[in-house]
């Protein structure tokens, strides 16, 4: 959380960041990504608990007392999203069962953790993201709600959606499809409509709307390609296609398709040049910091 | 929640929506609107509780254990807005007494429920709106706060206002006047100032501000006419008049009067043509989806 | 809360407000500012408790049962920011200790209270601000988090930051530096990055972002000079300097330096004239209402 | 609470207590008993709130913010007896409705308050009893449960009974009949069976059991006459009759009828002489302190 | 709960109870006992929820939303025993894991439910016992604590024990061994020491102590044989043996062995005759009502 | 908790217990008793947290995150005794201030911890007692309430008393005077009247009543000398004097003075022989296990 915004006028500049404080990635082949990340999280939490005894309770409760990432995440989400009429034990059951039935939910969470760590210079550790990032937590809850939606458990999906919208001020319809390695930075005020699709490696800042135009029913929300970066306060409306690696400037209003590797800025947005450079990992706009 | 946005460039197109999944409306003349809607809500909740036992507790607690809409709504709001120093029983008392003393509060809630159902394609049922729509709940709480304000119970009105702003991230001053059949869609970040007035059949999306200009005291906020539609992220400042049936494009900054049936878009906003067509029910811009 | 917005086109007009309902300020020399404000707050709360018995519990709990402002504020923040894994007693300890160790935290809170009272016509009393203003409460909690950050207690600083972001939808990085007499009006959706600096007498409305551009690491966020006013929904990105007494129009996107006493409006923002008048207290744009 | 026990060997001594600190009773004829007691309670609470600001919150919440005794009592019982699956608002409704439907529940509560005040030297005020006496609160909740039982709402009666048994460690079956002006002193561990009957002006200390013998079904529990006093730890088993004005010594095991104005002591209990004196108000053993 | 006590003087009388309102038992052979009882519980809860909508929330939350008895019981115990530092989700995990690892815990719970139903005329249904009987719930929690104790997880066993002692006022050391088909009636104040053993088919009333004599360490608490009945308030001290089918009168103090099928009454207790009758099912003193 | 009872018939036997698992006591002279005990508690909690990760949260919250015994105890009591109208932060303040104003409260708590550890073979560690012993916690809260009582803060003293009686089922009047090195074992149902006095080194089991006889006002409750042991379920009534080192048998009813080093048993109690042996530390009946 807390740091960067796309500068629309200058996307042709290569963004190079020396993330020398980041862990070596990818992890050694001899262990799975999930195991490796979970081991990191435990070590970070243990270190923090030692430095800051006043926080130890919180860290043991949310991380250190759990045997695995999915249980930690289930516990944390259940406590955050519970209300006087939706008890934490009920939500805990729901999350645990979802994570154990669909391992892709856990691997997506791990991919998101790695994405946040790599793209957000203000993120100091995996545990920091796991515990504190509203966007990360909202995204994991939405993936569970999406799974419920696909299983035709719509009332439960919408109840979960409602709690996420209330607690995190992040409002993603459970029917929306979200890829992997996604970063919802700061996240307050994010609104994503029912038929929206968000690809892999996408970074979206706060106050962003992926909405409808109000003119048509059915498939009426934006389709966001892989590696897209959308700046703070941008509004994208209608069943438009934002191409792979495109950038949407902060505060823009986008009502048209944006071709791949192109930047759109302004209200209403205009396109300001594609990028012809071959795409290397560090060039994908979703990794700008 | 979660779906539609005004497309400012295309408001001349008639918006036709086949709401074939919506209930026949108006209800049969032989029963009151409130009774009819409450019956629908109970039936929906009963059906959902049967399909989804894990949600039954929530549905019984909020809807099925109550004999009437005003008690259900009082209970739901009291639990959502309570805090460690504002107990739910106290708020419950306050809401119950308000609803029973002023039946127009209940009929306005019913009108809002019908409006949401008709205008928001993502709204799957009345109970969905009653339980989950932050904008709907914030609006009902504001109407009660407004009543307290008029009774010179300002500290209580402001305490209620504060809880709504915190819990729902919807910040409507208790002195603001709000009409009937209002839809606050998504609602996160909505800010409405002290001397603002919102007419009937108005639809307002999230991140909208109806604010002052900071230059004058007294009557300093916008007056929104009947049937107006205001898109996401729009900012309307000053004691300006937005005429009946006008549309404000998403992301617009409006500092001037907007005539009836006219659309304003851009930052700063410019007007893009009035509409001469006779106003039919389905043409009022408040019903665009 | 709830009232005014900067009107970018008209900042040359002198803003004169007859705050005749405001207390005479500064307070008599014979007593300290903190004591005077606390006495006012107690008197207001006592009056409100008498008029509105239903609110007396809330007022006694938060104000009237406490011997001093710092204890009242610690109590109020601890209860609001507690969660099932961060108990209110722990947070209460943390706030109490911070306020007693660093008296400037209390004097800054008092300065903010006076600023809100003077600049926001919708603020009816000091106690109203102390109890209900999300921006005020978030700011005080951030100052404590900032102190923890400087003491290298980063995990605790970030935990506090996370709770503020979740409860108030106000997201100010604990490393950001904030001056005195600051008004965060409405405050929902405010985002302030890690290396941002906010001067004295600054007024910032809701949905404002002081973010990075994503191109560079290190010192990458805006520096806001004394007396600046930033309108609702404005986005200021990059390590730019907003000069003393400048105004940023609502909904503007600012990517460049803004000279002192100059107004910037639009997306992207353009400058519309400096002010040559000698700066008097009542002319500083942070006091526009 | 906390004071006196029957001394079985010495009941023939006239018990004279100088309750000079007690209010003059009965209250002036010009007002009802309920109104008079409620006025006293409010005055006491107001005085305590002034002396002890730290307690003001508690006193406003439970007493001073309520317009009448039945609302105060409903609020207090609802908060004490609520659980994560029996919400306080639901119980509040239940108590409010019961008290308003059956005014005898309120007048019985008032009679109990007067009884406690007159018989227990450790009771310093009506508000002290209303807020703090487990026996008083358990008794009022039982009367409501009894009413539900008679209305064939047995599951609700038993749920209420269960909460009382858990919260107060007082276990009175909802079918048991209890008179007026009853004092359950200390009350911890009191057990009263399904077919037991307790008359008017009865005083029962803690750890007392009015149970069955296990040999027969049907009407199998003791019948306690008016004005009886039962000492701490006494066990009365079977469908026996304890006559008017009788005394049961502390720690006694009673398996036989006890004639009026007679004392029973020991394990098993033996009778130690009736009392021939004409019964005056101050002689009834239920008023011994 | 709520009914019967042993009558020490009359144990030679055959106790015949016409439990005509009880379900036919044993259940049909074609299904397991656990399944059959769970089916009954669901049916009872469904019927109660229909009759009493105000209780439906409670019944769905605790019973109807769960797929099996062990999940329902885990949920109910976790919510009842949770505290601000022992979260319900943690306890839920602990109970779920215990029940699934050791099916005898579930079958013991079922045996207890059947025992309560058969012996306590005041028990109106299985669900009534499952939800409301402190003795039943304390016993199930103790069995889980006992399992933790045997696994050398003593701190957790003692933490659980402590919560049970606090919430239910039932204090059974986790090292004590408890058989099947046990009835702890009313249960308030029951204290069972570390080296005590309780056999099968035992019925123990409230305020009973199975304690040590304070003279020796090691194995120092009573051993209670199968089918024993211990009346309310009885105190059994030291490593004494209460033989199969014996009865201990209410209020007795037992410091010596009691032979099988013998009754002990008084303080100190004396034996009042063995029973020579052949033991039939309905004659075992554990089934007296 | 959970173990031993006085055996009335055999108090002449020297009670020797090999508490070889207990810490060497007294602690080394070079440190204070309080420091030494607190160091032990921290070490125990740390060891338990390592063995039982599921309990680490609880242990950090209650012990390991605190710098001193008085803060740990204040936190623990505040959380246990809080209610919806008596917030934990308020109680935390009250306890913290009491402990810091009156260091004898802390040294008494330490003396009690040492007493429990030495006399109760079921007590496995200091932390076990600190966290889990109802009698220990009730006693510490009573000492604070007693201090408030002496300061004429009676409403607060009674409010605290009421919470202790409700939460722990231990009912000690705040005016009662209690010595040091006191053990209230199991503690459920303990009732101590207003004018009772309890000396040093006293051990009292559960269900004990130190009550009045109901015949006189004023000084009407028992005076318990140093080193007295009172067995479970004993009832001592009236202003009688129980001499130093006396023993009261379980289940006894005592209405007369008991000379020093004498044992009283039965209902009513008779004396069974004084002890002429010179009193050595290990002979004082308060240390029987």
TrEMBL record, chains A, B, C, D, E, F:
Going by the record, the broad EC class of this enzyme is: transferase
Stretch list, region Disordered: 1-34
According to the entry, every stretch annotated as the Serine acetyltransferase N-terminal domain falls at 37-141
Q: Which UniProt keywords apply?
A: Acyltransferase, Amino-acid biosynthesis, Transferase
- Family matches, as InterPro entries: Hexapep (IPR001451), Hexapep_transf_CS (IPR018357), LbH_SAT (IPR045304), Ser_AcTrfase_N (IPR010493), Ser_AcTrfase_N_sf (IPR042122), Serine_acetyltransferase (IPR053376), Trimer_LpxA-like_sf (IPR011004)
**Compositionally biased tracts (Low complexity):** 1-18
Enzyme Commission number(s) from the entry? 2.3.1.30
Pathway(s) annotated for this protein in UniProt: Amino-acid biosynthesis; L-cysteine biosynthesis; L-cysteine from L-serine: step 1/2
Q: What is this protein called?
A: serine O-acetyltransferase
The species this protein was found in: Acorus calamus
């Amino acid at each position: 959380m807390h740091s960067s915004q796309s500068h629309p006028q200058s996307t042709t500049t290569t963004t190079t960041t020396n993330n020398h404080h980041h862990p070596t990635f990818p992890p050694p082949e001899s262990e799975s990504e999930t195991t490796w990340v979970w081991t990191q999280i435990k070590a970070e939490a243990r270190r923090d608990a030692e430095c800051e005894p006043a926080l130890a309770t919180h860290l043991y409760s949310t991380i250190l007392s759990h045997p695995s990432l999915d249980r930690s995440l289930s516990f944390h989400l259940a406590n955050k999203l519970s209300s006087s009429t939706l008890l934490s034990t009920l939500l805990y059951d729901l999350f645990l069962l979802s994570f154990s039935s669909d391992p892709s939910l856990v691997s997506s969470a791990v991919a998101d953790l790695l994405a946040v760590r790599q793209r957000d210079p203000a993120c100091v550790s995996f545990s920091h993201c796991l515990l504190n990032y509203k966007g990360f937590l909202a995204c994991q809850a939405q993936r569970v709600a999406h799974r419920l939606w696909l299983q035709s458990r719509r009332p439960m999906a919408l109840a979960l959606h409602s709690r996420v919208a209330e607690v995190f001020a992040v409002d993603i319809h459970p029917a929306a499809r979200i890829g992997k390695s996604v970063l919802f930075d700061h996240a307050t005020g994010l609104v994503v409509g029912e038929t929206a699709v968000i690809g892999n490696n996408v970074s979206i800042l706060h106050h962003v709307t992926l909405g409808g135009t109000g003119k048509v029913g059915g498939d009426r929300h934006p389709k966001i390609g892989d590696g897209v970066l959308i700046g703070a306060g941008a509004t994208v409306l209608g069943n438009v296609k934002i191409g792979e690696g495109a950038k949407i400037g902060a505060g823009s209003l986008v009502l048209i398709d944006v071709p791949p590797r192109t930047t759109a800025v302004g209200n209403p947005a205009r396109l300001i040049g594609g990028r012809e450079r071959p795409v290397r990992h560090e060039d994908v706009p979703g990794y700008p910091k």
